[in-house]
Design a protein that fits this description.
nine-stranded mixed β-sheet, five-stranded mixed β-sheet, globular
């Protein structure tokens, strides 16, 4: 677990600095999904009672056994909620109390009902209809099955037409935190980044050099290595205008390292820390963050830090845990915390979320830190 002195120090700093968030607006985009959180039925004993398939490997065995035959596997929707890396992160940042503007495909011309909570917490600008994800959850992970056609409408032209180029420039100039998520599923995201760099960044005030811009490629395995490499090069160019943070989970970090020619580490914490350091140096950006399930690592030019998380072996929800970690880490950085304290705000945010299925307010984080779970 995190050591008690770090918990006390971070909780105190968070309590002192939380009111500063009102003066540090965030701009987040550009995806949007309707998520259905699903469990797979193993045995049903009555209309209301059933057991679930606990692990991905057991589902895989059942599917493999159906090869050459057939199978009928029941899906039970436990919850319908807003989804997408951007909306989940935006909802979390808004729950902290920061002013948030969210731009993405949340329903057009009418907002989809699942985004109404976000619209109450943040200013939203919707440019297209949302995608849809069946999030199959298991005790050992999740499978996200997506329908992505509407993401083809997330283009620079649509952003300009439905948000306005002048308004976009104002939002980028004012934001202390910018987060541009889900490159993998947005086919025109690289083009959007190029247009931002060419049409907006050259006109930004000098003060944005101290502002944060966060990127989450979001599981790039299906994309070509050349495309991933080109996206990383675009991300690195933003360092000329902002302090760039690249966030990854463990699997994503291995894929990015392979594309960049960095040797694949084993699963030891020390090798993950070394890989984070090498990734940051290779890209020349402010921070690289890697968050495996049980801990998190961050690298800057001067340090590499690791924090053990409050691991939950049977989470109430896992879809969105990484986005909540990202929001919590960016919260720490936004408030001027060092790497170690920012990692703690990250794992605390995700730890609270997976246990409650709710985005925490600052007071929730403080209570969590003061009553750190043992498991």
């Amino acid at each position: 677990m995190a050591n008690s002195s770090l918990l006390t120090k971070t909780a105190g700093a968070l309590a002192t600095a939380k009111n500063n968030l009102q003066a540090r607006p965030a701009l987040i985009g550009f995806d949007g999904f309707v998520d259905e959180i699903v469990r797979m039925v193993d045995k049903r004993s009555s209309l209301k009672e059933y057991s679930t398939i606990p692990t991905i490997s057991q589902l895989a065995a059942r599917i493999a056994d159906a090869a050459g035959k057939s199978a009928n596997i029941e899906m039970v929707v436990q919850k319908m909620k807003l989804g997408g890396n951007g909306p989940i992160m935006a909802n979390a940042v808004a729950a902290f109390g920061a002013p948030v503007t969210y731009i993405g495909n949340l329903g057009y011309p009418t907002l989809h009902p699942v985004f109404e909570e976000l619209a109450q917490r943040a200013r939203v600008i919707s440019i297209a209809n949302p995608g849809h994800t069946d999030a199959l959850e298991f005790d050992d992970g999740k499978l996200l099955l997506g329908k992505l056609e509407t993401l083809n409408e997330v283009t620079w032209d649509n952003l300009v037409q439905r948000a306005g180029e002048e308004k976009l420039a104002e939002l980028f100039a004012a934001a202390h935190l910018i987060s541009l998520n889900n490159w993998t599923m947005l086919p025109y995201m690289s083009d959007i980044w190029k247009n931002i760099q060419q049409r907006i960044c050259p006109h930004l005030p000098a003060s944005t050099k101290n502002h944060l811009i966060f990127f989450d490629l979001a599981d790039p395995e299906k994309r070509l290595a050349a495309d991933i490499r080109a996206a990383l090069e675009l991300i690195a160019k933003f360092q000329d205008y902002f302090q760039v943070i690249l966030g990854t989970n463990e699997k994503e970090s291995f894929e990015i390292a392979e594309v960049l020619g960095i040797p694949q580490p084993d699963n030891q914490q020390e090798s993950i820390m070394r890989m984070a350091e090498e990734l940051r140096a290779k890209l020349g950006i402010h921070n690289v963050v890697i968050h495996p399930v049980q801990y998190a690592v961050a690298a800057s030019a001067n340090a590499v830090q690791l924090i053990e998380g409050p691991y939950a072996p049977k989470p109430l929800i896992s879809t969105g845990a990484g986005d909540h970690f990202n929001a919590g880490f960016c919260l720490g950085r936004l408030l001027g915390f060092d790497l170690e304290m920012s990692l703690l705000t990250g794992v605390t945010t995700s730890g609270f979320y997976v246990r409650t299925a709710k985005s925490p307010a600052i007071d929730d984080l403080l209570n969590f830190m003061r009553n750190w779970p043992q498991s």
